[in-house]
Amino acid sequence: MSDFPDPTETHPIRLADGAAHLGTVFLRAVIDHPRIEIGEYTYASAHKPPECWASQIAPYLYDFSPEKLIIGRFCQIASGVQFVTASANHRYDGFSSFPFAVFGAGPRDGRPSMPETGRDTFVGHDCWIGTDATILPGACLGNGVIVGAGAVVTGNVPAFSIVAGNPARVIRARFERSTIARLEAIAWWDWPIDRILANEAAICGADIEALERAKD
């Protein structure tokens, strides 16, 4: 188990010839952004690796943005996924949505064309976000959520549910409510990596009793 990559490793996947697979990174190792928090072992992939992974996944989140993007541990983020955070918003409750303040003629703060500060965007642990999905400002994905390819996600997504479509809708829950509650209590994603690997079969094979025994 010692050959499992350290969460600080940039390129955790090795090809058959031993070379690093440059299209997959542990995000925590490659993103240093004051408004982004990413848990260990969360990875992202891209068919064409970007120069800046922060701007690749969250292009509207700036150093000076008031909101945050928070992603848990062991998440899997496919190529083309974007988090459209609250700084991308325009005010749309008036007659025009044009952001006059962005272009000058005075300070931005307090200008009538600027929207109110938006919510943080949150992704729980062990979420799988499919190719080209878009996560809209203020979305909150619970633990274990699966997002279908091309989905446009907004609002609160219940833990261990599968969502797809535009706008994304819950297709089904992955497990019964009682099982989901037990999984949330076990929280295997918080375990040391050696214990996780020792219980890989139970985690990936849905053996809830074995996980409860391993937790104690």
CATH homology group of the largest domain: Hexapeptide repeat proteins
Pick out the low-confidence regions.
none
Strand and helix order: EHEEHEEEEEEEEEEEEHHHH
Q: N-to-C terminal Cα separation, in Å?
A: 21 Å
The appropriate CATH architecture of the largest domain is: 3 Solenoid
- Number of helical runs? 6
| CATH classification, class level of the largest domain | Mainly Beta
What is the mean predicted local confidence, pLDDT?
A: 92
Supply Rg.
19 Å
By oligomeric state, this entry counts as: single chain
How many beta strands in the DSSP annotation?
Answer: 15
What class, by secondary structure content? alpha/beta
Q: Strand count, sense and closure of the main sheet?
A: 7 strands, mixed
Q: How big a fraction of the residues is strand?
A: 15-25%
Total separate domains: 2
Widest sheet: strand ordering? 1-3-5-8-11-14-15
In short:
The chain has 216 residues and is an alpha/beta fold. It has six helices and 15 strands.
Structure description:
By secondary structure, the protein is α/β, with parallel strands linked by helices. It folds into two domains: 24-174, Hexapeptide repeat proteins (UDP N-Acetylglucosamine Acyltransferase, domain 1, 3 Solenoid); 176-216, no CATH class. Helices cover 18% and strands 19% of the residues. The chain is built from six helices and 15 strands. The protein has helices at residues 27-30, 53-57, 177-186, 193-198, 200-205, 208-215; strands at 24-26, 36-38, 43-45, 69-71, 76-77, 82-83, 121-123, 128-129, 134-135, 140-141, 146-147, 152-153, 156-157, 161-164, 169-173. The strands form three sheets. It has a seven-stranded mixed β-sheet. A hairpin with a 4-residue loop joins strand 14 and strand 15. Helix 3 runs parallel beside helix 6. The longest helix has 10 residues, at 177-186. The protein is globular. The chain starts with 23 loop residues before the first strand and ends with a helix. The model has no long low-confidence stretch (mean pLDDT 92).
